[in-house]
Here is the input.
Amino acid sequence: MTGVQKVCLNNLNINIKNAFVIGIIIAKKCPRTFSPKEKSSELRGVMSFTIRDSQIDTINVDVWGSDNFVTTFYNRFIVGDVVEIYSPKICVKSVADDLFKPQVSSPFYLSINEGSSVVSTFSGDTGAYLPLLHIPSKSSAGCGLAEVMTFTEGNGNIYVDLLVVVKSVQPVKMIKTKLGVEMPVRAVEIVDNTTPASLYLEMFDTDTIQRAEEWRPLGSVLFIADARVSWRGRGARTQVCGRSVVTHQPHTSNAEALRLYIQDRAAGGEAAAWSEWSGQRACAATVEQVRDRLADGAPFCASLHALLTHLDLDDLINSTDNNCEELRVRFADHTGELTARLPANILQNTLGYTTQQLKAMSSEERAAVRWRLLLEQCCAKLAATPHRLIVLSLRKANPADPIPLY
Here is the structure.
């Protein structure tokens, strides 16, 4: 294209009329549609994305046009694409831009209007740009999940930077908005080195949902700049929002150290991780006290003296998961009942049989093993996360064990 000049992001200014910019897309924001002032005109749309052309320089780009143009544009380009932008309008960024878009280094933003600017896939050598996808957009120190779990809904809107490891990737679900519109959502379970507890990271935009297909449990590290903290039910959750930039496998030393730490912790088992974290802080509690603390959403450990009222070993047989890792158990005392999850390795430590040995038993043999603990007074060490209660150890109680009163 004639009459244009290639400009690096750090050299932009509002006096350049025919700039030619190259960068890699590091974030996208879903399109929004709105009605024009003239009733006869078609629906209009706007979306934004963020590009960078160096380890330091980033800028936001707005795309305006008809609803069809903006939607097509959104579907055409994905995070990781290297694009070339011809003749964008260079505008001075306002304070409001930082409220709803990713924080960037440039004092400007680029505006692309249908029919006046052109964006296409870069046809040259992308070798200098692709590594930039793994450079965090902000300092990768991050906020620990343990701190996030202490936040309460009364704190208002909170945005945090997170350096985490993916523990599990949940399937995509469809939900209905308050306006009755169906939209996809995917949750990813995330962990870090500040607590054995995990949190869920929710994603609502199509691009990030699709990117999550590539994330591997205990192998993928994420740096999420400006994740939004939200509340639904018990405890805090985190969300990818319009301000967020998700960096997969960030090229930083602390990201690699975190990945190795989590893999080493996972090799020792969840119960071992909780035991190391809790130390001697697992104070005796009743069922009601455990339930009261669960309402706070913060992780904790507790020692429970209660009747084991539910332990169905046939759940191992009926499970559709060949690698069933935990069973549902139920405890009761003079203050109430609660349900917890019993990991398979703790079940083995308690009963002396592996999952495979229990599956190989007859129904009568499993019943005999089950009745060693069922309806017996037991001592259980419990670990609480915002979304589940885990049994760390389980044994039959003896007369020396204290029975807490509430």
Q: What stands out?
A: The radius of gyration is 26 Å. The CA atoms of residues 159 and 311 lie 41 Å apart. The chain has a mean pLDDT of 87.
